[in-house]
From TrEMBL:
Organism for this UniProt entry: Salegentibacter echinorum
Protein name: Predicted arabinose efflux permease, MFS family
GO CC annotation terms, alphabetical: plasma membrane
Membrane-topology descriptor: Multi-pass membrane protein
Locations listed in the record: Cell membrane
InterPro entries: MFS, MFS_dom, MFS_Efflux_Transporters, MFS_trans_sf
Record Gene3D superfamilies: MFS general substrate transporter like domains
Predominant subcellular localization, coarse grouping: membrane
Amino acid sequence: MSKQYIVEKAKGGFPLLLMILMSSVTFVGILSELMPSGVLPLIMDDLNISEVQTGNMVGYYAIASAIFAIPLISLTMHFNRKYLLLILLGGFAISNIISGLVQDYTIVIILRILGGICAGVMWPMIAAYGMRLVDEKHHGKAIAVIMAGTTLGISIGMPIMTAIGNDYGWRTEFIGLGVFIIAIAIVSFIALPSIPGEKLTKSSSPFALLKIPAVLIVLLLTLLGVVAHYGVYVYITSLVDEIQLAGGVESALMFFGAGSLISVLLAIKYTDKHLRLLTIAMFALIIISMFIFLTFGGTTGIGHFAFFLWGVSFGPLVTLLQAAVSRQVETAKDVATSVQSSVFNFSIMIASSVAGLLLGIYSPMSLVYLAIVLSVPGIIISVFAKKSLS
């Protein structure tokens, strides 16, 4: 462990540059997962596969993340945090670079599953790693900065990578991301402090955590919040077409992204002191934005404002829920966040499935109603969950 890190932590400082470096890891992590969705037609034509098979490149990745998170976090608890992160970055790089080079669909899927396994370990461990680099009073801020990479990845990274894919080919996009990940790994090797792993005990096992009522409440809020948000977000194009929003999906994503970025900055500043208030506001804003969609639809200006408010609600989703679950344990925060991360990923799959079924029967506005129905109990639970969100 570096002497500079020890001195800085002792002084109660916040190592912002290190947190930004860790944020770059979550940035490439979310891009690795979602990147195929922006260039689906190109991949379909190149590999001569169906739309469903192409969609599986994202689906299998998410399933692998959800399934392997808890067991692998438990198995790697004793690993040095820095070197574990470097191994995971290596896995991301291999998954993306080789996917961009091979012609066989089966090999691509295997590589996507490898990337998903790495993501399943990375998401919970990097938040816990970051918390160990700062004083307890800065834990929420650390998570907020680190997880800001996901919001930046969705709002800024995805449009850029999609443009690269469309202009230069999806293989160039994948290989380019892999090279960028290698660069991040090199900087991480030089800059990040070495932190020893922890011993997994019966009291810190996933099964022990599931016996804590406050943890179960956070997991329930995760389920409600993620399904509410992603049930609409996965089919945002359908919603935009339904309300005939001026400027189309590009303008919707621009306003959504702007709101997300603002809320991430608010989360960085206020999560440590006002976690419960921010969680209540998150559920309240999604309800308000969905009601605006229902009542004003694509009215120019008002519809765009609704996407902005929805983005404000969406931005701190990961940060607030991971901060909440990590507060329920003193040690093995990796395990706690891995449980929450698995529920998060399973919730995304549930959201996609349920929303797809609704969309097949009803109009896209049914997804808006779904978000409201799930967010109402979310806000009620958040109001009364003083212990879980304290």
